Amino acid sequence: MPHNVVATSQDSIQDAATTSVPSQAPVAANPSQATVAAVTLQATIDATSVQASTATSIQTTCIQATWPAETDIVVNPITNRVTLTTQHPLLRTVIQEAIENLRVSLLFDDAFPNAIVTPLAIRECLMSAADNPKALMVKMRLTSDERYLTTMIRLVSLSFQLGCD
Question: Among 16, 130, 143, 163, which residue has the least CB neighbours within 10 Å?
Answer without folding.
Answer: 163
